[in-house]
Amino acid sequence: MQVRPYVLLIACAVLPPALAAQATKAPAPPAPPAAPAAAPAASTSPVADALRQMEQRFSRILIAAAEAMPADKYTYRPTPAQMSFAQIQAHLANEGNDLLCSKVAGVAAPQHAAADSTLGKEALVARLKETFTFCETAFAHLDDSKLNEPIQLFGPNPFSRAAAILITVGDWADHYSQEANYLRLNGVLPPTAKPRTGM
């Protein structure tokens, strides 16, 4: 008796039904999708939150610009009609941060001697840091509930608090742009032109 034909015959009889049974098996269900990450809660004061973020950014880059300019270039001005670099620092501290931040936040401005452009780099940088600390503290509890409230900024006509917020951020951007140009004209790379370090 030859075994091979019988083995072959049994294999041919058993294999097709086994393959057919395997083919008709239902595929395994796909794994359920991962649960999406919970979205952060929506801000209840998006304007005030944006102002706080802008204050943090401009505090970093304006202080970095003030530190980047060499002390002997603080008297530099591109033309006689423009403010010197030192005058920009004094203006930012006095009329910029002390005045605008106090008005926007509805708190009293700090009582101290005004920054003077003749103070020199070290004192002007220290004063600028102090005024940005004041702005951060003043904005800490600010919310969007009184954006339409009229406040006095300049001259007899009131501005809404929302307008004062935009003016404040615009003032920082305006003076950073000035300083970036002054730095470049003196061969110094402005802070935001340097490789990314979180600025």
Task: Please describe what this structure looks like.
The chain has 199 residues and is mainly alpha-helical. It has a single domain, classed as Four Helix Bundle (Hemerythrin (Met), subunit A), CATH 1.20.120. 55% of the residues lie in helices and 2% in strands. It has five helices and two strands, in the order ααααββα. A two-stranded antiparallel ribbon has the order 1-2. Helix 2 runs antiparallel to helix 4 (121-139), helix 3 (85-105) runs parallel beside helix 4 and helix 3 packs antiparallel against helix 5. The longest helix has 25 residues, at 161-185. Mean pLDDT is 85; it is low at 6-15.
Write a compact overview of the structure shown.
Helices cover 55% and strands 2% of the residues.
What is the topological layout?
Elements: H1 3-23, H2 46-68, H3 85-105, H4 121-139, E1 150-151, E2 159-160, H5 161-185
Antiparallel strand pairs: 1-2
Helix pairs in contact: 2-4, 2-5, 3-4, 3-5
Distance from first to last alpha carbon: 89 Å
* Strand numbers in spatial order across the main sheet: 1-2
Residue stretches low in confidence (pLDDT < 50, at least 5 long) are: 6-15
Assigned CATH superfamily: dinb family like domain
Tally of DSSP helical segments: 5
Question: What's the rounded overall pLDDT mean?
Answer: 85
What is the makeup of the main sheet? 2 strands, antiparallel
- Name of the CATH first level: Mainly Alpha
* CATH second-level architecture: Up-down Bundle
Q: What is the element string, with H for helices and E for strands?
A: HHHHEEH
Q: Which outline best applies?
A: globular
Helix content: 40-55%
Tally of extended strands?
2
Strand content: under 5%
Report the structural category.
Answer: mainly alpha
Radius of gyration from the alpha-carbon trace, in angstroms: 34 Å
- Tally of domains: 1
> If you consult CATH, what is the topology?
Four Helix Bundle (Hemerythrin (Met), subunit A)
